[in-house]
Amino acid sequence: MKRLTAILGYAAAVLTIVVAVVGPLFWFGVFSRAAAKTSLRIDPMYTGGEPARTIVHDGYQMVVYKPVPKRAPLSQTASFVQVVWKPASALPPAISEPVDLDGDGQPDCVVSFQASRGLDAKLRVSVEPLTTLVQPMNGVGKDSFSSLIARANDTIVVRVPLR
Amino acid sequence: MPDRDRSIALVAPRGIGRSLLLTVPMALFTLLLFTPVLRQPGRPTKLAALIAWAFMIALFFLMMRTRETYRWRRIFFITLGFLFPVGFIWDLVAVRSSMSIPIERMLSGDTPFCFMVLPMTLIPAALTRTIIFPGSILPTPSNPHSIAVMVALWLLATVILGKAWCSYGCFFGGLDEGFSSVAKKARLHKLNPKWRLAPWAILVAIVLLSAATYEPIYCMWLCPFKTVTEFPEVRSVQTALQFGIFIALFLALVVVLPFLTKKRTQCAFFCPFGAFQSIFSRTSIFDIRIDKEKCGAGCVLCQNNCPTLAIDQSSIQAGKTLSSCTRCGTCVDVCRKHAAVWHIKGTPVGVTPERARLLYLYAAWVFASIFGGSIIANSLQKLIGLIV
C-alpha cells in the first residue's frame, strides 16, 4: 500500500510539471472559450444594463437603457437609467432633450448638457423631472455610478437616478 | 529572535556539471517560451527578454548548485515585486497620464482584473450571474487582462503551486518580502500569533460585505497595493478618504512593519487573498514536513525564521507546517538537522527530500519564469528604453 501511494504521489508530482509546461500553451484559450459560453456578465452598475430603445436624430442617436434597480440592500448606488448619445463627435453643441425612461410614451425628464466642449473639458448635466419617477440633477459631473455624465469612447453617457 | 542562520556548511554543493545538467531542461523550455518576445522588433524588447530569461535561469542554476531554495527564490520574488509597479505604472501613465482610474474607463470595461477581487465576486456571481468588477469577461484590445484570462491564470497557478502562489507568483508579496529583508535584525520581536487569524476574519468580512453592497469592498477601501498600481479617481471626500487609507495601509503593512519585524506582515496578518489561497494549501501535491525525531529538542530556527509565521510548536509536533505555509523554503534551508524537508504527498517523509524539492522546483519555476519572468521583462524593457 505504501508503495502504491508513493507511486501515485510521484505520478501526481510529474503530472504537475506537465501541467506547468503544457498548460500555458492552450489553457487560456480553452478557458476563455468556455467563459464565453456561460451566461456570466459584468454587473449592470458598471455596464449600464441592456439597451431598451433607440431614438434616431439627424446625425446622432439616443439610446435609452432598461432601468437598473438598486443592486443590494447596502449598495451606495441608487436605481438609475442609463441614456447614451452617440456618436459624441456628431452631437449639436447643446443638448436639451425630453427622455422617456420607462417606455410609456410620455417623457419623464428633460436632460440638458453642453456637448461641444473639448475632450478634456469637464461635462456637466442637469435633469429636470417631469414625473415623480426621476430625481433632479443640477450641474452634476461624475458624482456616483447612479448620477453622472461621462465621455466613454465616442459616446456621452448620462445616468439618471430614479426615486 | 535569531537572525537567519543558514546550514550551508552542512549541505555539500552539487557539482557544476550535474547542476548544469539539471538546469538545461528549464533553460531550453523557458527559452522556447521567450522566443516570441525575442523575435519582436526593438532592441530594448529583445535585450529585456534576454536579461529576464538569463536571470531566471541563473537563479535556477544556483538553486541546483547550492541545494538552497529560499535565498535565490527571494531574489526573484523581490525583483518581481519591485519591477511590477514600474511596468504597470509606466503603462498607465502612457495610456492615461495618471495612476487613477477615471470612471469613463470603468464604464467601458477597461479595468484590468486583479486576482484579489476573486473571492468577493463569488456570492454575487452565484446569485445573479454577474461579476461585480468594472472589467470585461473576455479579453479586448483595450483590456487584455480580462476576467476569463486572470481566472484561468489563477486556476493554473492553484493547480501548480497551491498556496505557493504567495511565494512564486504574487508580485505584491514581493514588495512585502523586499521590505522585510532590508534590516539585518528584527527590531520588533513580540508578535501575537493570534494575528494569523486576521486574514481569515478580513476574508469573511469582505466577502459578506461585497455580497451586501455588490461592490468589491477590499478594492474600494482596503487594498494597500492601490498605492503602487491604480486607484479610483479622487473626485469626492469619500474617494480622498479611500486613497488615504490605501497609503496608510501600504506604509504600515508593507513598509514599516516588515522592516521592524523581518516578517511578511501584509501577507501573514492582513491579505484576504492569502487566506483564500490557504484553502488550496492542502490540495497541492508538494508540502513541507518536519521529522520530529530528527528535530529532537527543537531549536525553533524554522519557527523563528518563517516569514509568514506558518510554523509553531503545535505544527512542529504534528510534523507539518500550517496552512499559511507559502513553500518559500526558508525552514528547510535553515534547519541544521535536516528535520524540515520537502515532501511529496503519499511518499515516505525524509527518504528522498531532494527529489521532492527538484520536482517541486521544476513545476514552480516554470510558472515563475513564464508569469514573473514576463513581468520582469516588460518592466526592464521600459527601463532599458530610457537608456538605449
Please provide a written account of the structure.
The complex is a heterodimer of chains A (163) and B (388). Chain A is α+β, with helices and mostly antiparallel strands. Chain A has 2 domains: 1-40, no CATH class; 44-161, no CATH class. Chain A contains 2 helices and 11 strands, in the order αβαββββββββββ. Chain A has helices at residues 2-37, 44-47, and strands at residues 41-42, 51-56, 61-65, 80-86, 94-99, 109-114, 125-129, 137-140, 142-144, 147-152, 155-161. Chain A is elongated. Chain B is built from 18 helices and 5 strands. In chain B, the strands form 2 sheets. A two-stranded parallel sheet of chain B has the order 1-3. In chain B, strands 4-5 form a two-stranded antiparallel ribbon. In chain B, helix 3 (70-96) packs across helix 8 (171-180) and helix 9 (198-213) crosses helix 13 (272-278). The chains are: A alpha+beta (163), B mainly alpha (388). The interface between A and B is large, with 50 and 59 residues.
Query: How helix-rich are the residues of chain A, as a percent range?
Result: 10-25%
Radius of gyration of chain B: 21 Å
Radius of gyration of chain A: 24 Å
User: What is the string of SSEs of chain B from the N terminus onward?
Assistant: HHHEHHEHHHHHEHHHEHHHHEH
Oligomerization? heterodimer
Q: What portion of residues of chain B is helical?
A: 55-70%
SS strand fraction of chain B: under 5%
Shape of chain B: globular
Largest inter-chain contact set: A-B, 50 and 59 residues
| Largest pleated sheet of chain A | 6 strands, antiparallel
In terms of structural class, how would the helical and strand content of chain A be classed? alpha+beta
Determine the N-to-C terminus distance of chain A. 69 Å
